[in-house]
Every structure is written in C-alpha cells, then in structure tokens.
Amino acid sequence: MTPPHVLAFRGQDRAERRPGTRASGWAHFTFTSLASLGVIVFAIARVERVRLLEALVVPSTFLFANLVEYLVHRGPMHRRKKLLPILYERHTLRHHRFFTHEAMACESAADFSIVLFPPVMLLVVLGGVALPVALLLFAVATPNAGWLFVATAMGYFLTYEWLHFAYHLPERSRLARSHLVRALRERHALHHDLGRMAHENFNITFPLCDWLFGTLARKHNDA
Ligand SMILES: [Zn+2]
Ligand SMILES: [Zn+2]
User: Fold this and answer.
1) What is the distance in A from the centroid of ligand 1 to the CA of 56?
2) Count of domains in the chain?
3) How far is the CA of 179 from the centre of ligand 2 (A)?
4) What are residue 104's phi and psi, to 5 degrees?
5) 131: CA distance to ligand 1 center in Å?
6) Separation of CA 95 and ligand 1 centre (Å)
C-alpha cells in the first residue's frame, strides 16, 4: 500500500513537472540504453590484440566506478553541498520522496524520469570522465587501454541505469523477479527507508564498497 505522504508527493511532483507521458518515459529509457550501447560497441570495435596488462584496465575501472558510485551517493546525493546542490535535490528531496521502501514501483512509464538520469548525464559521463581519462591513457599507456576504459566505464553506467530501473519496476514484472535483481532490489529497498537512507546501502549496483566501508545492511540481520 502506498502511504498517503508518498501519494501526496507524487501528485504534487506530477503536477509541477512537464507532464511526462508513457511514450516519453520509454523514449528516455531507449535513448539511455542505445546511446550507451553505441559508445560501448564503438570502443570495443577499436580494441585489438589485448595484452594482459591492458586487460587489467577492465577490473580496475569496474572497482573505481564502484567507489565513485558509493562516494557520490553517500556524499553529495545525500548531503547538500555547495557544489552541485542539484544532486541532493534530485536524489534526496525527489527520488527518495517519490519512492520509499513501502512504495518502490513506478506507476507508469511516465515516472521513469524519476529513476533514470536525465539524458544530459550521458554527455557528462562521456565528456567529463570517459573522454579525458581515455585521452590520458592514449598518451601514457596504449590506445587499447583507453578504449577498454571507455567501454568499461560506459558499461558500468548502463548497468547502474538498468539495475536501478529494474528495482523500481512493479514487483510482478519478469525482470524484477529474477534472482539477482530480487536480491539487489531488497538492499536498495532498505536504502529507501527514510530513516536509513543516509546511513546504509549506498551502492546501487554491486555492494562491494558498502561491504568494505561497513555500511551494508541486510534485511534479516539489521531490521
Ligand atoms: Zn532508488
Ligand atoms: Zn539514496
């Protein structure tokens, strides 16, 4: 049952934003998916004869991305900072009031924009992170290392978007019922408890850093 305070916030949020439609929700999801996949395929197509040291870029990038995900979520997304207060506003004041542990699912595709990053975020990740680091790797390492970084970073970004999207689908949907998604979704639902959101389960994808920094909560142990 959706609590009254969530219903009230959803009504107010929908009235204030440009009315989203089911079609615009699916267009948003399709754009995020296809643009990210396009960059990943473009980068992988440029990799040839990978050496072992170059291949290490993939797990290193994955671990680095997991740390960034954790720190940004634990930091500016949950604590208002002078720099980029929009992260706090979009996440704590909006995403967490629109979805709580008692009401995790979108009611229609028109709500997808409360889950997915705005499309401009793709340009930020691509132009602000993937490209500069890739250029650095081109210069100090090899082109393979640069392209593998781009492919892994964009792959991580898309995994974040797809998993977070799956957590906020109705529980009966096929994707949300898969074993892996169910387990990860349960952790994210704990994070959506307003009393816990600033303290636990900051990894949206795989809870490596939560485990490392002691902020991992599991329903049965900690409830
Ligand atoms: Zn969420
Ligand atoms: Zn959060």
Assistant:
1) 31
2) 1
3) 23
4) -95, -15
5) 28
6) 7
Q: Looking at the domain assignment, is residue 126 inside a domain?
A: yes
- Residue 6 within any structural domain of the chain: no
pLDDT in tens, 78-112: 999 888 899 999 999 999 999 999 999 999 998 99
Which ligand approaches the C-alpha of residue 164 most closely? Answer: 1
Range of the domain at 111: 23-222
Mean pLDDT rounded to a whole number for the chain: 92
In a domain, 81, yes or no: yes
pLDDT single digits (tens) 112-169: 999 999 999 888 888 988 899 999 999 999 999 999 999 999 999 999 999 999 999 9
Residues 6+ apart with CB under 8 A from 141: 54
Ligand 1 centroid to 51 CA: how many Å?
A: 38
Ligand nearest to the CA of 203: 2
Q: Which residues of 22-61 are buried (b: 16+ CB within 10 A; e: fewer)?
A: eeebeebbeebeebbeebbeebeeebeebeeebeebeeeb
Identity at 205, one-letter amino acid code? T
